[in-house]
Amino acid sequence: MIEFVDVALLVLLGVTSLVIIREQNLFAAVMLAGIYSLLSAGLFVVLDAVDVAFTEAAVGAGISTVLMLGTLALVGHQEHKPKRRPILPLFVVAVTGGVLVYGTLDMPPFGDPANPIHHHVAPHYLEESPHEIGVPNVVTSVLASYRGYDTMGETTVIFAAVVGVLLLLSRGPRPRRTVVNGTWRTVAYEEDPPEVEEDRDG
Amino acid sequence: MDDRVILRVGAKILIPFILLFALYVQFHGDYGPGGGFQAGVIFAAAFVLYALVYGLGNVQRALPPQAVYVCAALGVLIYAGVGFVTLALGGDFLAYNVLNHNPEHGQEYGILFVELGVLVTVFGSMVAIFYAFAGRRKVDV
What we know:
The complex is a heterodimer of chains A (202) and B (141).
Chain A: H1 2-22, H2 26-46, H3 50-75, H4 87-104, H5 122-132, H6 138-146, H7 148-169, E1 175-180, E2 183-188, H8 193-201
Antiparallel strand pairs in A: 1-2
Chain B: H1 5-27, H2 36-54, H3 56-62, H4 65-88, H5 103-134
């Protein structure tokens, strides 16, 4: 039964990604990307990683779909036909993919209990977490306590991301170089820039 | 969107439950799947839904952009602040045992506060990024 679920999810993932590549309508592509995330979440549930699945469903299928739709509202939802056939990008992608697949050949066998990852700190976390942390969910005790530094780094990364987005996208009055009476001046707009642009057109 | 009655009423009914579910995910993270990150995203999703149905202006009256920016920074401060409190109490940075005379309770408080920090930053960041995207005018390409 579990094999059937695995195969079904993987086939659907493959089909979805192929359709995303072929799809010219970006609106459909964004919705399919959301479906892709939801399928990945299902796959994580099958792998018993419910916390990861939860995050994938909330962020990948939820928020990022909304953000992509917000981007489409700005840039239009039809993909422009490429002028040339993308031979070089295809080559680069194929080589990179090949190298990555080659890299996985060196990885320890999937799910093997003798893998190094299961013999480093994981046994300590699993055995001592009830006494040392006292939180029933080991994922939480690892994230928030044993690996508290990492989680603080992640939180800081999210904060840095929002600072970057705001620096790039946030609107507001900002000075602009423009020609006034034949000379370049730096003009600070008091009102919304769009209205000024419309005035300039008229 | 004034004519879409089902959407408006449906969103209005759903939003309190989404917010409550986010809080459940936050405080139940010790026992089941979930935690600050997921809860923050779900909390933000409620405001995004409100913005999608009722417009950006209405949601920004309830939750001004400045408040969201403060949230994004405040969460990191809460998280790092817990670390400095444990330092001040004589422990290592983010070693929660010193927060209470019972080390297990100390761990509980520490996790509670850092998860709160994660929730606040993720919530503020998600809504701020959504505001930044939704607040832009369409550009001609």
